[in-house]
Amino acid sequence: MYRLASMHRALFCAIMLALPAAILAAPVTLSLDGVKQGNAGLQAAFDTLDGKPTLRVTDMSPTGAGDDVRLLVIPASHFRNGTIELEVSGDVKPGSNSGARGFVGLAFRVQSGKQFEMFYLRPTNGRVIDQVRRNHALQYVSFPGYPWELLREKFPGQYESYADMEPGKLIPIRIAVDGTRARLYVNHASQPALVLDDLKQGDSEGAIALWVGPGTVAHFTAPRVDTDVPRL
Q1: Which of 150, 117, 152, 147 is closest to 133 using CA atoms?
Q2: Which of 32, 33, 70, 195 is most buried, with most CB under 10 Å away?
Q3: Residue 83 within a domain
């Protein structure tokens, strides 16, 4: 009897010790209230798109503002490994130049707004009748040191890919990260559209941030974060 009681106590203690970890590991939907605006001039307001609540972000930045200052950091967010899921939309802002593509993305492992990894989309490339532009529909970049221009020049085709998308429509995306490996999934696909095994900032951690490129009106749903490490 004593032995049985001891076993019950041991089991109870094991469950209580494991419970906080289980709670912490549960998926969390991040609030977009109070996103911290960078210094490039991004105008944010709550809206709806395709019947879903979104945060609409409009690029109001001066000409020449760099990609690394176009972040809206989500308060209290922290991410190292796991998955991030949300829907994004990007469209060209009226009056923008011919190079605008509706650039919209998500940065992760953001440190001080200057070091981060990021996947972004060029929605106007999704259905254009131009195969080269289609091949550039998805993009990985990393700051500092790895803007899209350098990656395209040094490693053509390696950090870009294609997925079907339309400007002005919500696009489901999922980012899976484990150490220095990452995958980008689009439109609920079971297979990744873009595969990386060499995240340029290494096995780091940091905040999550929304990103909007030049000449863009973007929409974001609230990101859902799961810190269970995916098998990549």
Answers
A1: 152
A2: 70
A3: yes
